[in-house]
TrEMBL record, chains A, B, C, D:
InterPro entries: Aldolase_class_II_sugar_metab (IPR050197), Aldolase_II/adducin_N (IPR001303), Aldolase_II/adducin_N_sf (IPR036409), MethylthioRu-1-P_deHdtase_MtnB (IPR017714). One of its GO terms (cellular component) is cytosol. The keyword Lipid biosynthesis does not apply. Catalyzes the dehydration of methylthioribulose-1-phosphate (MTRu-1-P) into 2,3-diketo-5-methylthiopentyl-1-phosphate (DK-MTP-1-P). GO terms for molecular function: aldehyde-lyase activity; methylthioribulose 1-phosphate dehydratase activity; zinc ion binding. The gene is mtnB. This is Methylthioribulose-1-phosphate dehydratase. Pfam families: Aldolase_II (PF00596). Pathway: Amino-acid biosynthesis; L-methionine biosynthesis via salvage pathway; L-methionine from S-methyl-5-thio-alpha-D-ribose 1-phosphate: step 2/6. Gene3D superfamilies: Class II aldolase/adducin N-terminal domain. Keywords: Amino-acid biosynthesis, Lyase, Metal-binding, Methionine biosynthesis, Zinc.
């Protein structure tokens, strides 16, 4: 990207490409999912409510403050913007947040009754924050879906610092983040790959 | 699209792109499926019989009247054109109709013996008409396939107003619609995503 | 295609595009599969032995006579060229033949011990020669694989005229044909779609 | 490629295209996998540690010597570079090595407790070194994953010459090689296709 692009223009471009990538993988069906990027000045660039993430245009990216309020009157952020804001607030290193809906995360979160999925013995789990070996077990917390996002966020708060692979809302999808967009995308790909493995193993009775 | 395009040219372009999208997802194998758009003057633009929906050319889109009769002598609409006409007649808000054949809809409709599939507890079901929460159950009616399309249409008639996610013909495929093409496509993607989830859950004994 | 293209150049172009399509669907892994087209003068244009069907170049298409002998000394046809020649000989209407290897055809042909798979109650089966309703059962014969292609061909001979959807060699793949390339491709897509449905149904105990 | 390209530039181009191909198939999630090419002068061109294999740039390819030491100070090879070097040392005909992580190889290697998977009766197995018929059984050894790559390599050493389809590290992925990049890619596609078949057959109780 050109040196002279503004931080917002750069973030917008990253968000559009991330949306296309997630769409190619089938992780943002219909108008599901949302994508954000923290700007150096603290503003958050995030996808507008209701658009398809595979076909985003520059005008589909808006900015909100740390409380999820749009800077420009009339811009309508998605209700789930609050979950992005929470991640940026709780993790000062977070620079990008991805929320997607895959078949594997949706199905596994609905059939697993315990409060977390566990990823163990996979080489790919080294992509998650602080992981250096496959000989570990990475928990992925499962939260009940709730149309009251503030109430949902409250349940997530105590888990920050203990979910290196992100978290899943039951019947809804994953939240993954990283210091920048490539890191967040790599973690999302890693998590979705491992959930796909987990789903296949369940079909084989494991 | 350019301001000066005719309504028919616009509709044709939308239909071609929708066909390519459905093909990329594997929902229009062989010459299966059909796609239509209601024009402001009441005519219906619809795919010609027998062509592949992933490789449509402009001349593969024809117009029919509300009774499914082609305006231009020699144009051959598919037999299923009547199901499109029925949707436009029954739902005055419908502006686009999509009919696709996916593995998930085909298989689920053949193994489920009750008269409907039920979608419940999924966030994505909010994409369907009038849905605001995952805490609902959306029925998707299943109709027996019939080569006599008029007779098939009669069985569908009583269900209008009660099938926000569209309907499925057993061993055949889905019918989904919306006020415009992006809405219809988003609903189709939502429905196919949820059917894929349902199929995976059945494999796991649910 | 331009009026002035030779028949061979036209056939080559159709074969290259068919290879790319089959590769995009995952039906020609490694150097598997082969593709041919009968020319108006009776020559058969067919893919050379050993090349990847998703990355064919014009020089990867050669011509053979009805007995499978290359017209140009040094051109090496694949051993399976004889199966293409057999189809053109047995079915005078055949203009294009496709041979692909899919996961579904490979797996189903290895687990089904009876001499045929049966496709019934699917709308898509209307894409096959002479089928006008889903209320029929289309048999797809299964032949044992054999590195002696002439011996394999002999076992196929008696079935011509009774296999509208083509046939399958166990652990190997499908043979499908049609009057021209679009027809052959549509039948291949139809067959693979239905085999994918069959495989899913088997997982569900059907 | 142009005559005047250096061997390293040619190898880099082949590695970038191989990465895009593996990514399109879903075999290099996150920053997983690595790809190398032996140059005529004995140097090994290999992907740098930590980058996404689907989005490689020329500067992501570095050169190492036969012991895995980077020629340019500051270039950081991945720890698994040693496994590539081992293959080039043990098999003088090897010109390209591919390491990918697929769902099928990961899942099968974790559920199979015996020391190898066996591929038998598949036509596609003829793509592997020295195979001329489907009537053979090709073993694919399974090794325990180990973050100590030198120790892992020692366990692989005795198997060279007896693994025509490559090998698998449990919960980690496959290593496949060939005399040049197209051969290595064809073998990788062949192996992944057969592992996908094996996984489907296990779901059906075989």
């Amino acid at each position: 990207m050109s040196e002279s692009m503004t931080d917002f223009a750069r973030a917008t471009q990253e968000i559009l490409l991330a949306g296309q990538r997630m769409d190619a993988r089938g992780w943002v069906p219909a108008t599901a999912g949302n994508i954000s990027r923290r700007l150096p000045d603290g503003r958050i660039a995030i996808t507008r409510s209701g658009c398809h993430k595979g076909f985003l245009k520059a005008e589909d990216v808006i900015t909100v403050n740390g409380g999820g309020i749009a800077h420009r009157p009339g811009d309508k952020p998605s209700a789930e913007t609050l979950l992005h804001c929470q991640i940026y607030q709780q993790d000062p290193t977070a620079g990008a947040v991805l929320h997607g809906h895959s078949v594997a995360s949706t199905v596994l979160s609905m059939i697993e009754k315990s409060p977390a999925l566990h990823l163990a013995d996979y080489e790919v789990q080294k992509v998650f924050e602080g992981q250096t070996t496959h000989e570990a077990s990475v928990p992925v917390p499962l939260f009940e879906n709730d149309q009251d996002i503030a109430r949902l966020a409250q349940k997530v708060t105590p888990f920050f610092g203990t979910m290196p692979a992100g978290y899943i809302i039951r019947g809804h999808g994953v939240y993954v983040w990283g210091k920048d967009m490539p890191t967040a995308l790599a973690r999302l790909e890693g998590l979705e790959f491992l959930l796909a493995c987990l789903l296949e193993r369940r079909k084989l009775g494991q």
